[in-house]
Design goal:
Length: about 375
């Protein structure tokens, strides 16, 4: 009768488990970040969402180059022009050719006195790459007048607004404000929420009570009316840039409470853990305990909340600008563009003005895809 070594039995069981789950072998050799990335990239929707966000942020950042026109270039003779059709087949010559656009013919309605536009097939204008157009300074540094695409004719991909400004160009430039206000606002909100949440959970006592009462006070006010009242209190003489930063600060000051409570809960569950008590007994400072033991336990949660909070910030700015209490001309944002589409009569006659709502919907959905995948990937050891 042979004696079985207990150690060899345990090794055999581990080998059997690894043979049944080959990925378990990799988990021991990969870092936490590598495990999170491996699980995140399994979500096709998250990868698509991340690609869309990268593309939109790139287009907005370099809008001077990608947009056919400047966002302030207007032409009252071409107000409310419908989206331009790009053609590759010349009906007059009966052959295929390089993409081009036709000219415009305008007729005035005798009742409304508004102009309506149709294509003038007697005039053609080629669509060119690296077209020379409006001058600009890329990122405020490099002067140029080169645009990715353009034409000497009426080239309005998404139509024009009431001032004859190209809507597509204004959407790209408006993304600079609407997209960055989400990043800047969430950064400030995350900074406040994380700091106050950790202090509230770690110190406790009167400080915890004071912070929680402030959060409850902010939560008691309805969000939209509170935003409107604070935004309306901004001085009328402020520039567009000053209003932009003020709106960002307002959204940040009102959005940190939920994160602070969630981080506080994380800290409360770990501040009395054995390794934290051992660090205190060894003489570790409060700063060391917070930065090395308590804060890292909430990192993944903070990242997920940040990803899911950005759409809320974007929608907040869009709502304020839509109501006329946010970004002010000559600056533009997606909310400012939607102001022109708030009248039913305008929408009925010029429905292309609603195109400016599409990037808002796309960005919110893309951020939700990425946030959902990050939430699942933050716990790579779960099945």
């Amino acid at each position: 009768m042979t004696n079985m070594n207990p150690g060899s039995t345990a090794n055999m069981q581990i080998e059997d488990e690894l043979s049944e789950d080959p990925q378990a072998l990799d988990r021991g050799s990969l870092s936490y970040r590598q495990l999170v990335w491996r699980r995140f990239r399994k979500s096709k929707l998250a990868i698509i969402g991340a690609g869309i966000l990268i593309a939109l942020y790139s287009l907005s950042l370099f809008a001077d180059f990608f947009a056919p026109y400047s966002y302030i270039t207007d032409n009252m003779l071409n107000r409310y022009v419908p989206p331009t059709h790009v053609h590759v087949y010349d009906t007059k010559a009966g052959n295929l050719r390089w993409p081009f656009v036709y000219g415009l013919k305008s007729t005035r309605d005798r009742e409304t006195m508004e102009l309506s536009f149709t294509e003038d097939t007697t005039k053609t204008y080629p669509v060119t790459l690296f077209h020379r157009g409006d001058s600009y300074r890329m990122l405020g540094i490099v002067s140029s007048n080169l645009h990715l695409i353009g034409s000497d004719g009426p080239f309005y991909i998404a139509g024009t607004d009431r001032m004859g400004r190209d809507l597509f160009s204004r959407i790209l430039f408006g993304g600079r404000v609407s997209l960055t206000i989400g990043l800047v606002g969430v950064f400030l909100s995350i900074l406040l929420g994380s700091l106050l949440g950790i202090l509230s959970g770690y110190r406790g006592g009167w400080l915890d009570v004071a912070i929680q009462r402030i959060i409850e006070l902010l939560s008691a006010f309805p969000a939209i009316p509170l935003w409107m009242s604070l935004a309306a209190a901004l001085p009328a003489g402020w520039s567009g840039l000053q209003v932009y930063f003020a709106i960002t600060v307002i959204l940040s000051l009102l959005g940190w409470g939920g994160l602070a409570r969630q981080v506080r809960g994380k800290v409360l569950s770990t501040r009395d853990a054995d390794y934290v008590m051992a660090a205190r007994a060894a003489g570790a400072s409060h700063w060391y305990v917070i930065t090395r033991h308590l804060a890292p336990t909430a990192y993944s949660h903070i990242i997920i909340i940040a990803t899911l909070s950005i759409p809320g910030m974007i929608l907040g700015e869009t709502a304020l600008s839509f109501l006329g209490l946010g970004i002010r001309p000559p600056m533009t944002s997606w909310g400012v563009l939607l102001q022109d589409a708030q009248r039913v009569t305008v929408v009925l006659h010029y429905p292309w003005l609603l195109i400016s709502s599409l990037p808002v919907v796309i960005v919110v959905i893309a951020f939700n895809f990425v946030g959902d995948a990050l939430r699942d990937a933050a716990d790579p050891y779960s099945n």
